[in-house]
Design brief:
The complex is a heterodimer of chains A (744) and B (295).
Chain A lengths: L2 H20 L3 H16 L21 E4 L7 E4 L1 H11 L5 H17 L1 H13 L13 E3 L10 H23 L3 H28 L5 H16 L5 H15 L5 E2 H15 L4 H18 L6 E5 L6 H18 L5 E6 L5 H12 L6 E4 H12 L3 H4 L2 E4 L3 E4 L3 E10 H9 L3 E2 L4 E2 L13 H33 L3 H5 L4 H4 L3 H5 L2 E9 L1 H17 L5 H9 L6 H9 L8 H25 L4 E6 L4 H6 L30 H8 L7 E4 L2 E4 L1 H6 L1 H13 L4 E6 L2 H9 L8 E3 L4 E3 L5 H8 L7
Parallel strand pairs in A: 4-5, 5-6, 6-7, 10-13, 13-14, 14-15, 16-17
Antiparallel strand pairs in A: 1-2, 3-10, 7-17, 8-9, 11-12, 18-19
Helix pairs in contact in A: 1-2, 1-3, 1-4, 2-7, 3-4, 5-17, 6-7, 6-9, 6-10, 7-8, 7-9, 8-9, 9-11, 10-12, 11-12, 12-13, 16-17, 16-21, 17-24, 21-24
Chain B lengths: L1 E8 L7 E6 L20 E4 L9 H5 L5 E4 L8 E4 L9 H5 L5 E4 L5 H9 L2 H7 L2 E5 L7 H13 L3 E6 L5 H10 L2 E5 L5 H8 L4 H13 L3 E7 L7 H13 L3 E8 L5 H6 L14 H10 L4
Parallel strand pairs in B: 2-7, 7-8, 8-9, 9-10, 10-11
Antiparallel strand pairs in B: 1-2, 3-6, 4-5
Helix pairs in contact in B: 3-5, 5-6, 6-8
The chains are: A alpha/beta (744), B alpha/beta (295).
């Protein structure tokens, strides 16, 4: 960055701070900040854009408002970068400006939402909680308001004008408030974004070969400011102006939202399939720039849609767009249900068969009853369940479901074997629960594991409540509040009684690796007495150097993922325990409606494994842990049906999201299509939550590591997100490569 | 004696199946890709590719199966395995840190086998699959085979038997009562040539096919095509003639030669004589299928 740009960034910091300080009411302040930042955050329109609105893709402003951006949420502040810029240009600035910048930096050091959050933990527990996984110990946490998939269908049906009317109506009923005023202002911000792009479209049109398209776009941008969308194009553009202005990261059931407008336009002859795909593709282009690979979920299909026939038409369009574009975003997700049309289901499998990794398929047959029980909600509400981000469930328009912490069960088992000492970081981090000499039975080990884990689970649950409480004091989350059921009618902001269900989730890593390790210790140390626990812990400390025979033995212990009742039961024990203590901590430490675990593991199972010593499942130091609900790497050897049987044993009423990665060779998928279809259908209809389907051969992955330039389009599913294989971190590539590919 | 249970098996009959491989075979087909099935009992296997030459197996073996020859400095020792001496005590397998040694063959009860097969029942139901019993030649363990089929029927499983069709008509009759579909291998045309390449003649096959036609039991005739060995017009003509003669043959399947079994010949201490053969291409397979009018 050149000096001129750095000075501009620092001046922006000062201006934003002035706006922030100028208003003491948090709702009005947020509206003003939102308005101010669009001019900085929104990228200029490109000549060939059919849909306007782009942002992100590079480092953001030094300060700003965003519900979840980067885990430094709400009023975020890039302190290190601000200091670095300031140091670099200090000499060239007049003293008055220097003083102003210093004052702003000092102000945000305390005022940034994340600072308030991390300080709250320090004040209660006397230390700062880990903010990343490259730290000793079992847990980490950041700050965010996520899992806020709003009711886009309502936006499309009412438009900005309809929302204004709704607010005015409730204003009359409850009396005016700064919250209602701020909501109206937040609608003005949407109009202002649309107007900004409209002017750009007109200006670009003057000298462009795309003049006709740009003028049409300008027209659309003008109309959505004053009326509800009357065409598919207007609907898509309104949705996107809203999403990009509010930094919305997950989009929900767009097939429902756009279905009626699409069918209406096609019937009227004003739109055809190819034109609609072109509009979607133009929008996808922005998603690629924004690059939120862990988010960007679109849901299609499923029970409880008001317009299933029309919605299915759009579902097909979205799948075809994803097939053609073949990018890591959006994370297109299909909900499989009883009565799904063959056309939709076959298309979904065909797109997966081309190696797109999409659509991810979720089973309503499994999930709706489980969601009803887990959240204790009626069928109609459970039909609004959907996975966001990496796969955490929320109830669209009815809940917030932020995950902001991570737990590593393999590390907890490691600490249990070593008296609370983290041998990777060489630091005492857990309580003194005894060394291997003090552990005489498998029950002793289980107790030590619990003692290492449970206090931390309480702490992060408490911190989760703080994550919401501190955020609620600072902002109303206006754009989200606009489209969450209840906020406008009640006149209450999202986190202050507005949203019906304030939920949250906790991301659990290393379940399988911990369980497989525990199983091996149970069998070889305590049952068969092949070696003592002290001998085993020594082997782990030296990373099995000189103990390859013992490692091979450990690898032969029954492993999860092979439909072996004994091994699967141990994994269920670990799973159910963490699920139960998470929920209990949610009850004792929070006021949330529901706080439950998820096992969705983006790439953290590989990355966090790097910071773990060798484990008794036979895994070497720093090697990846099993991903999500999957087996230890390469340990599923009994065939795909055995793996799916193990995966479907999970108690789905105890979690709010698990993911199942499975990989087929391209040949198998192509040559045995009907059998693969029957296999997947059976899984979805027998307690299978979902599948992330990779269709690629291990040889292709190996070759891609040697000749990346030839495999630029090789997409893989990591866990909760997809990526181009060649762009992944080597640790993650290794994990992907060593998963089992099922061949003919 | 079972040498493998393969779940999610997609090529041994309709739907998703579990294939149970029974040990023991009277034939010695030169191209066999399951040579670990020849011997009826449990047998030792040694994978030279992953042996580290540590010598632990030789130390524990009471029968002198393993010996090591020191080679030039800097190279691992050469491991020699005298398979004939092995008494299947398993001591070496337990010791081997590299997992270079293992047994082929596990003694299992029919109930244990069926219990594992039943774990995938829901997949059979949705895909029209079931159990396939293969080998070796499964009819060599006739009583066990009948037990498995009986249990399969009890549990409502669709049952397929893969055989060379060399059992007596009486036995075939008993099998047919419990079997939904036979996969019958047709290897070589001509009694003498068959003997030369597989170690046995196949005259009884025709009785089997005649019987199955008489009772209307469906058969898929599976034809391993081995380049330079049986990819002759005479052989293809004979296959077509079989199909027109025996009404039980509902379908022909080409099984192109594959070198996948070569390492298993070596690991069980047997010499493989077709090392010079290359795997046929997709194009070859298509050509053969056309010759047999397979669409």
């Amino acid at each position: 960055m050149n000096k001129h740009a750095e000075i501009a960034e620092l001046k922006y910091l000062c201006d934003f701070t002035e706006i922030y300080k100028s208003e003491s009411d948090k709702y009005l302040r947020e509206a003003k900040c939102l308005r101010f930042q669009i001019y900085k955050a929104l990228h200029p329109l490109q000549e060939n854009d059919l849909i306007a609105g782009c942002m992100g893709g590079e480092e953001r402003a030094l300060v700003g408002f965003s519900p979840q951006y980067g885990g430094i949420y709400t009023y975020y502040f890039h302190q290190d970068r601000a200091m670095q810029f300031f140091k670099a240009v200090q000499g060239q600035l007049d003293p008055e400006l220097c003083k102003q910048i210093e004052a702003c930096i000092d102000f945000w050091k305390e005022e940034a939402t994340l600072t308030k959050l991390t300080n709250s933990f320090k004040n209660k527990y006397g230390y700062y909680i880990n903010d990343n996984l490259n730290n000793p110990g079992v847990v980490n946490a950041d700050g965010r308001i996520a899992g806020t998939t709003v009711d886009i269908d309502k936006l499309i049906r009412l438009g900005i004008s309809g929302l204004r009317e709704e607010i005015e109506q409730y204003k009359k009923l409850h009396g005016d408030s700064t919250f209602y005023q701020a909501l109206l202002l937040s609608l003005d911000v949407l109009c202002e974004s649309a107007e900004l792009y409209r002017k750009q479209a007109l200006s670009l049109a003057e000298q462009s070969a795309h003049c006709k398209e740009l003028l049409a776009l300008a027209d659309v941008l003008q109309r959505i400011q004053v009326q509800a969308p009357k065409s598919f194009y207007e609907g898509l553009q309104l949705f996107w102006i809203y999403a990009v202005t509010s930094d919305l990261m997950n989009f929900g059931r767009l097939d429902v939202a756009f279905g009626d407008l699409y069918v209406q336009d096609v019937t009227a002859g004003t739109l055809d399939e190819e034109s609609a795909i072109a509009l979607f593709a133009s929008w996808y282009k922005h998603l690629v720039v924004i690059d939120k690979v862990h988010d960007s979920r679109i849901i299609i299909g499923g029970e409880g849609r008001r317009n299933p026939k029309n919605a299915d038409k759009v579902a097909l369009l979205l799948m075809e767009t994803s097939r053609r574009v073949k990018e890591a975003v959006p994370q297109l997700t299909l909900r499989y249900y009883k009565g799904i049309s063959d056309e939709i289901y076959d298309k979904a499998l065909a797109v997966n068969g081309e190696g797109c990794t999409f659509p991810i398929i979720y089973s309503d047959i499994t999930n709706i009853p489980a969601v009803m029980e887990c959240y204790d909600i009626p069928y109609e509400e459970a039909c609004r369940y959907l996975p966001f981000g990496c796969g955490e469930f929320i109830i669209q328009g009815l809940s917030v479901g932020t995950p902001n912490n991570g737990v590593n069960l393999l590390k907890a088992l490691e600490l249990a074997l070593f008296d609370g000492y983290d041998h990777f970081f060489e630091k005492q981090v857990g309580p003194h629960t005894g060394t291997a000499h003090d552990i005489h039975t498998i029950d002793d080990l289980w107790q030590a594991y619990r003692n290492q884990l449970e206090p931390d689970i309480q702490k992060i649950a408490w911190y989760k409540q703080q994550n919401y409480d501190i955020a609620a004091k600072q902002a109303g989350y206006l754009h989200i509040s606009l489209l969450m059921d209840g906020c406008i009618p009640k006149g209450k902001a999202l986190l202050e009684g507005g949203v019906k269900y304030l939920n949250a989730s906790s991301e659990i890593m290393g379940i399988t690796s911990a369980a497989d390790s525990f199983m091996a210790i149970k069998k070889y140390v305590f049952e068969e007495k092949r070696f003592t626990l002290s001998e085993l812990t020594h082997m782990l400390l030296v990373d099995f150097d000189g103990y390859e025979k013992e490692r091979q033995l450990l690898l032969q212990a029954p492993k999860y993922g092979n439909d072996i009742p004994e091994a699967d039961a141990v994994k269920d024990m670990f799973f159910n325990h963490i699920a139960d203590i998470t929920r209990e901590a949610g009850k004792s430490e929070t006021r949330l409606n529901n706080y439950s675990m998820v096992s969705v593991n983006n790439s953290s199972s590989a990355e966090w494994g790097y910071y773990c010593i060798a484990s008794a499942c036979g895994r070497h130091k720093s090697k990846p842990m099993g991903n999500a609900n999957g087996p230890s790497l390469g340990c599923d050897v009994k065939g795909m049906t055995a793996l799916l049987n193990s995966m479907s044993k999970v108690d789905n009423t105890r979690h709010v999201g698990v993911i199942n990665n499975i990989r087929f060779s391209s040949e198998l998928f192509k040559n045995s299509y009907e059998k693969i279809k029957a296999l997947l259908t059976t899984f979805y209809e027998h307690n299978g939550v979902e599948t992330n389907i990779d269709v690629v051969g291990a040889e292709d992955l190996q070759q891609a590591m040697v000749e990346p330039e030839k495999y630029k389009n090789l997409m893989v599913r990591i866990g909760g997100f997809s990526a181009r294989f060649i762009e992944l971190d080597p640790v993650v590539q290794y994990e992907i490569l060593n998963r089992t590919t099922y061949v003919a | 004696m079972v040498f493998d249970i393969q779940r999610f098996s997609l090529h041994d009959g309709p739907g998703i199946r579990t294939t149970v491989f029974l040990k023991g075979c009277p034939l010695r087909c030169l191209w066999c890709h399951n040579p670990e099935s020849f011997v009826a009992g449990q047998q030792l296997a040694y994978n030279a590719g992953i042996c580290t030459g540590c010598g632990l197996c030789a130390e524990v073996c009471p029968h002198g199966v393993h010996s090591f020859v020191r080679s030039n400095i800097g190279f691992p020792q050469t491991h020699k395995v005298d398979f004939a001496k092995c008494q299947q005590c398993g001591a070496c397998i337990e010791q081997c840190p590299a997992k270079a040694l293992k047994f082929f063959g596990t003694s299992m009860s029919s109930n244990d086998v069926i219990a594992e097969v039943l774990q995938d029942s829901k997949y059979y139901a949705s895909s029209g699959g079931g159990i396939t019993i293969s080998g070796g030649e499964p009819t060599l363990q006739f009583d066990f085979l009948m037990e498995l089929l009986g249990l399969s029927k009890q549990h409502g499983l669709h049952a397929v038997v893969e055989t060379y069709g060399l059992a007596s008509v009486e036995k075939t009759k008993q099998l047919a009562e419990l079997t939904d579909l036979f996969l019958i291998d047709y290897k070589v045309t001509g009694e003498e040539r068959h003997k030369e390449l597989t170690g046995m003649g196949n005259a009884r096959l025709y009785d089997t096919l005649a019987f199955l036609s008489k009772i209307g039991k469906p058969v898929v005739l599976r034809c391993p095509i081995i380049p330079t060995i049986n990819d002759t017009s005479e052989h293809f003509d004979a296959i077509l003639k079989l199909q027109s003669t025996y009404s039980c043959i509902e379908k022909l399947e080409v099984m192109p030669y594959h070198s996948i079994g070569v390492s298993k010949w070596k690991s069980t201490g047997q010499d493989y004589s077709l090392l010079h053969l290359e795997n046929p291409t997709e194009k070859d397979k298509k050509k053969w299928e056309e010759l047999l009018h397979i669409s």
